[in-house]
Design a protein that fits this description.
heterodimer; A: 310 residues; mainly alpha; ABC transporter involved in vitamin B12 uptake, BtuC; 14 helices; globular; B: 361 residues
Amino acid sequence: MDFAAINPLIFFSTMVAASIPVLLAALGELVVEKSGVLNLGVEGMMIIGAVCGFIAIYNSGSPFFGVLASIVAGGLLALVFGILTQVLHSNQVATGLALTLFGLGLSALIGQPFAGIKPPTFPKPDFGFLGDMPVLGQLFFKYDYLVYAAFLLVIVVSYVLNRTRAGLILRSIGENHDAAHALGYNVVRVRLAAIVFGGGCAGLGGGYLAMIRVPQWTEGMTAGVGWIALALVVFASWRPYRVILGAFLFGGVTLLQLNLQAVGIKINPAYLSMAPYIITIVALVVISGSSNRLSNLAPGSLGRLFHKTM
Amino acid sequence: MLVFERRREPSRFWTAITPILAVLITLIAGGILFATLGKDPLEAIKTIFWAPLFDPDLSAYARPQILVKAAPLVLIAIGLSIGFKANIWNIGAEGQYIMGAILGGGVALAFYPLEAWWIFPLMIVSGIAGGIAWAMIPALLKVKFRTNEILVSLMLVYVSEHFLASVSLGLLRNPDGVGFPGSRNLQHYASASNAELFAGTGIHLGVIVAFVSIFALYGLIRFHRLGFQIRVTGQSIRISRFAGVNPNLMIIFCLAAGGGLAGLAGIFELSGPAGRLSIDFNVGYGFTAIIVAFLGRLNPFGIALAALLMSLTYIGGDLAQFMLNLPAAAIQALQGMLLFFLLSMDFLSQYRIRIKHWASG
């Protein structure tokens, strides 16, 4: 066994890139849950984003269209969920599961002719001399555009949620939809907007996987990342910055497991592959069990049905 | 303008008719989907829904297969529906199914090549125990720490899949398998084999047990105090306390029911149709059963019908994959759509739609 074979610089930068899909998806779901809705269809929206982004970037050759297609596809699928749960009052758990099933199936259907093809390379920004700096260059200035966009999005979401009027309205609807309705806010419209935003983020997360991270289209390629994203929101106790922490932890463990195998540590690979899921469960337990202050962080109306009474 | 009025009670007419409507709309929408993807829609729909039942060359084989594939769906969905009624969301049945098969199969293989009458019952009980044990993890965490059972039970599916991979390549690997992954085939081990009961049909004991479980659930919900307590817990935990329900015991009971029946389905499948543990032993019955439970409206007879329908789409999907080169996952798209349409039409049974004028409003 030789730990020196793991280069910490490369490990860190790969970990950052590996955490982007789950980071984006979890950030979107965080906004959705803050508005009081639980969408279990993250996996389905991610994989639809993945296949649509891949087809768009492959056919147009343009990364911009790839990104756009991912976001729109995820958002559209989320809109289906939104209309079903918000307008037609269907059960959120069942609808979310249906969304995942449908997304997995539909993506396999439309992606069938695209399996195993390489997409065009996704561009990286050139930071000039910054990128040439010895350690910092490798750590901070060697990523593709979407990595920077994702971190910017975390800052924006955190700012909007906590420092603007729109964020206040969204949070109040999530805390107590009846009170927010009585104050004259349109609960259904705000929630629909949050759901579509969440879908767009999840779609982009999937798109990142297919266009940049892998980069290839394979049936079922999200492989449970959408579910991890759902757990991450709870892990982050509904705070945007903590989502980054959780995503790094998840990305790091996934990567560490590959690295440990590479340096020849004799652990059954199956047990290493379980690690991210077990750590997520442990984190869930710690958060839900630790104190009232923490467990009360969940939005008050999360998952509850809202029916407007005249 | 259109106004939605909540009905005092769900409309019986619409509750009964909407699943049928949902299936019909799924057929149409599925046809449109296949057409846009350049497949012949009539051919695809006919292969999936018609050929297994009525095609003269295929139906003799396919009809009993529908029952065989419906059995695990019924068993799992019956167990899950108990929890869903009480608002307890076990969505990790796939994992409980796997762990039931691993524990049951492991126990049986431990006695190989001993032949004895008690091996089969012991294997079945171990299968149930494996499923229950796996379901107790989310149950106890929920009782003790209020941890969300949806996320924990789901994470455990992935853990169990990796565990399955590890045992089928390691601990339970067939020592005489000349390097091939996977366990010994239980069909070749007479004491543990869940053999077919009617020659040539593939129908095994699990199908019979699934059938019995339908009536058992009906009896429980309709005539037993527990059935009432489950329903009250689903309405409101606070009210259920007044009805003498211990919410923590209810959580444990509901997850045990789901886990135990999923484990039972797993061990029947392993010792019967599947034969041996391998990486691809689980095929998603645990997830499809969730749809089955909803499609059947958490009603035991509804669940039976829904399971038969889902099983039909599985077999039809296999045919379509073979004959029309449709990807296997196309069936998931159809199943997802079916659930979408059903859930959206539930609205009709819950609400009355009226046209109101502004003046009279």
